[in-house]
Amino acid sequence: MCRKEYRVGIIGGGLMGKEFASAAARWCHILEDVPVPVVAGISDPSTEARAWFEQFPSVEYSVEDYHELLDKEDIDVIYCAIPHNMHAQVYTDIIRAKKHFMGEKPFGMDYAANREIMKAVGENPDVFVRCSSQHPFYPACQELIRWIRGGKLGKIIEVKSGFCHSSDLDLTKPVNWKRIVQVNGEYGCMGDLGIHTMHVPFHLGYKPKNVYAQLSNVVKERPDGKGGIAPCLTWDNATLICDSRDQNGNTFPIYFETKRMAPASTNRWYVEVYGVDCSVKFSTDDANGFWYTQNYGKEQAWCRVNIGYKPEFQTITGSIFEFGFTDTVQQMWVSFFKELEGEKVEFGCFRPEETRLAHLLQTAALASDREKRVICLADFEAEL
Description:
Layout: E1 5-11, H1 15-25, E2 36-43, H2 47-53, E3 61-63, H3 66-70, E4 77-80, H4 87-96, E5 100-103, H5 111-123, E6 129-131, H6 139-149, E7 156-165, H7 181-184, H8 189-203, E8 210-216, E9 221-223, E10 229-231, E11 237-245, E12 251-259, E13 267-275, E14 279-283, E15 289-296, E16 299-306, H9 325-340, H10 352-371, E17 375-376, H11 377-383
Parallel strand pairs: 1-2, 1-4, 2-3, 4-5, 5-6, 7-12
Antiparallel strand pairs: 7-13, 8-11, 8-17, 9-10, 11-12, 13-14, 14-15, 15-16
């Protein structure tokens, strides 16, 4: 099979940059007729960070200044994974350089930064832009989405979606940039985890109309890694309670939960949708399990199906095997390149306009917690 190639430059040589490079290196895993990403360049101020990428024979450019990648005419696509406070400047530079683009969440440190990025998106309609969010590409989660879209749940009762970590329960863990307002932003855990929780509900059309937020800063100080103590000023945990409506105008609540201090949750992403006729749920704690309810008269029971390796986009792996996180990253990128080529996909990447709604929701959540009241998003947006 002779496939089209896209030459990709990576800005940010951290964990997720490595994950993408690894996914690209094993693109032969994919059986779909989809373009092949070729990692052609890496930009990071750290020589050590760039050195890992230089093991790939396809990498021609290894530079400190990301502008050097943007100036390369043979770079087609940019993947950018950098701290939140850099998003507005770097993301707009990428878009205005006419590079197709996948950026990490939250797509701007705050509402104002996201507005700058969205302005660049609007001014460059020929540039394809998406936001990274890989977890919905687990096959069991895709099955959940198919059941909902197929109308099996009937009238929706409520939706719960969350992302929970527990590593910050280690009080000896040194402070990092995600606990510093000037770098992470005021959203705290919401900025880092929120878009992941919103991907499935937003794609299903479950858009929040208002929000009541409960935010917690549990640990206010941590070791600074230099023998001293540093303040932790960002939110550890957040629960957002919202109203939404289905296509028939019925109102139901959505709960968005983002937590860095969630006991026993190593890296738990979940979505649960409860309906009158049936309910469904998925969690990365049981990555191959799709759960649904079955009714027995007045009683309901949870039933589990082991979905196995049946992703949205076909691969060489047999269906009896297990699917994991690295597979979700690759599936997300297959979706990106298919959408870039104008193909319709069953479930796609998080879209720029959805990042705008995410920022509106999270900015309103800050106001809700501060003022201890429900915030109507339409009214709040009109005041911004």
